[in-house]
Amino acid sequence: MRAALDLASAGPSDRLLDLGTGTGEVLRQLARRSTRPLYAVGVDTSAAMLAHVPALPSGWTVRKGDALALPFAADEFEVAVASYVLHVLPEGVLATALAELARVLRPGGRLVTVTPVVPTRGLVRAVGVACDIVSRWAPATFGGLRSLDPGGALEQAGFALLCGRTVLRGYPSLCLLARLPAATGASLA
Who is most buried in 42, 52, 105, 156, counting CB within 10 A? Predict the structure, then answer.
């Protein structure tokens, strides 16, 4: 989460969306930072998960919603985080979810994704490969272990990949930072 939030670099003037917030871990860690957005909202399809989100800072909230039809207006957020959610979406809907994220982000908006990754070497690679195989064999039970590099799908959805980090501590993960094109006449910088 630390790597993802560092990449997001959400400040007081940003409105942040946490897609697939679950029990609110991204919001919880973001709330501990000295620099954070004044407005943040976590969205999840599970009311049971949302019931476990702790008290949030003033101006922050959670709501039930679906990644395929987000309950927000176009251009509502400057930053979105999709942490450990894209790889568990049903087969064939990743493009729809990314299009929804692009819709609710302002021009120039930033998206940080966090997905499981199979490490490239060492004993951790063998464990990662085994987890990936099991997740594809029994997705209903072990789908949360499936590795996913959403880079190509992000580009197809109109995002420009800015940077990425592979984090091997804890759950091996790929954190990507992508940005939508800025409004006409502006640069991506």
Answer: 42
Task: Name the DSSP letter for residue 97.
Answer: H
State pLDDT tens for residues 165-175: 988 777 788 99
- The answer to whether the beta carbons of residues 114 and 21 sit under 8 Å apart is no
Mean pLDDT of 131-154: 77
- Whether this prediction's pTM lies above 0.85 is answered by yes
| Alpha-carbon torsion angle 44, 48, 49, 54, nearest 10 | 110
58-74: per-residue pLDDT in tens? 999 999 999 999 999 99
Determine the pLDDT at residue 187: 45
DSSP class of residue 132 equals: H
pLDDT at 189 over 50: no
Question: Which helix (H) or strand (E) is 104 found in, with range?
Answer: helix 94-104
CA-nearest of 6, 163, 28, 182 to 109 is 182
Rounded to an integer, what distance in angstroms lies between the CA atom of residue 94 and that of residue 116? 15
- Domains and their CATH numbers in the chain: 2-118+147-179 (3.40.50.150)
Distance of CA 121 to the CA centre of its chain: 25
